[in-house]
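ok, trying the design again with the full structure, not the truncated one.
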């Protein structure tokens, strides 16, 4: 449930509410909005709900106590109506600017990584990507350079001044990855690895959570809730394609998810047309599509000689293709950025519960 404080409630009143929640063995999460403070009550409330609601309502400074209609709380727009903006080094994610995460699928060598980051940084990348610990479908495929790769990634940050993102595959790797990387990436295969979600939530770094290839939007947001519930509100969502009956592309990029998660949550969302399509020639059109529907950014794989890549050779862009894609997405972003608020919140009619986006539902409409 949410406790909405009266406008102008004092710190002592806010602390009084938090103390009551803590005394119940539950956790209060505060969101200080523009005009009032909202406190989410997180934990297993169970049968105590009616009694606890009444006690909170009677606590000084409290305006209302309401149930949260969604199973995810902290990541919902109901709790936090304003967009989350994440700052990491000089990069800003979620403020209406276009985030471009680019780099190789896997870090294969120091030279390969640095050659790539020099190019993408000079052509508009805002975050450097590169896999050091690789989740490969086959145990016999290249598994990544591990910590050696992390060291090259740190060198890439020094060289470009850009933050770096890389995947962490298991809780035991979180500390070492967080030591080198600015943003932790949780891959599609690990979206519901709950101990990894909690470990990343405690790591003190922003986290990018990729959508599980077989996960619904609600399951994805529940996974994000695990990270938030561990105390980390700096979460970027990444739509990277889901498995459908269609087999032409590697996955099906669910562009619908972009405005939907903007509607349901306050978190920024980026699209990954590389893993979504698995085909080089489809990356640019799907990057354009993602930006056009209001994504806060894209993640794209780039390699100096894609055909020689040790992983995902068929989907990595070469340098000219990256430059060409950047020209296109920059132009599209210029065109849609003024629509950002409209794309993100317009359908809500000003509040997360109002307006047309809730009309219809799966069975609504003609
Ligand atoms: C990646 O981005 O390196 C990756 C493995 O992606 P995904 O988890 O989406 O397959
Ligand atoms: Mn890849």
């Amino acid at each position: 449930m949410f406790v909405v404080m009266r406008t102008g409630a004092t710190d002592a009143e806010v602390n009084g509410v938090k103390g009551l929640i803590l005394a119940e063995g539950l956790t209060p999460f505060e969101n200080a909005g523009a005009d009032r403070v909202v406190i989410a009550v997180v934990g297993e409330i169970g049968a105590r709900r009616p009694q606890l609601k009444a006690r909170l309502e009677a606590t000084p400074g409290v305006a209302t106590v309401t149930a949260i209609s969604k199973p995810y709380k902290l990541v919902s727009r109901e709790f936090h109506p304003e967009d989350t903006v994440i700052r990491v080094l000089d990069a800003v994610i979620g403020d209406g600017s276009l985030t471009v995460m680019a780099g190789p699928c896997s870090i294969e060598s120091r030279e390969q990584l640095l050659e790539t980051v020099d190019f993408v940084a000079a052509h508009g990348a805002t975050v450097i990507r590169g896999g050091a610990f690789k989740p490969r479908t086959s145990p016999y495929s290249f598994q990544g350079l591990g910590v050696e790769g992390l060291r090259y990634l740190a060198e890439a940050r020094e060289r470009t001044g850009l933050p770096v993102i890389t995947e962490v595959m298991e809780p035991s790797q979180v500390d070492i990855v967080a030591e080198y990387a600015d943003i932790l990436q949780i891959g599609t295969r690990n979206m519901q690895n709950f101990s990894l979600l909690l470990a990343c939530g405690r790591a003190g770094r922003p986290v990018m959570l990729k959508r599980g290839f077989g996960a619904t939007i609600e399951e994805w947001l529940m996974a994000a809730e695990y990270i938030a519930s561990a105390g980390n509100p700096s979460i970027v969502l990444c739509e990277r394609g889901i498995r459908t009956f269609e087999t032409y592309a590697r996955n099906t990029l669910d562009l619908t998810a972009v405005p939907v998660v903007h509607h349901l949550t306050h978190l920024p969302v980026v699209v990954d047309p590389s893993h979504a399509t698995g085909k080089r020639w489809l990356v640019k059109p799907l990057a354009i599509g993602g930006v056009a529907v209001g994504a806060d950014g894209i993640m794209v794989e780039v390699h100096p000689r894609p055909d020689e890549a040790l992983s995902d050779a068929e989907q990595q862009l070469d340098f000219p293709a990256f430059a060409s894609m950047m020209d296109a997405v920059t132009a599209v972003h210029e065109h849609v950025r003024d629509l950002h608020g409209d794309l993100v919140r317009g359908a809500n009619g000003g509040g997360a519960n109002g307006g047309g986006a809730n009309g219809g539902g799966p069975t609504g409409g003609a």
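Keeping the full-length input from now on. The two ends are 35 Å apart (CA to CA).
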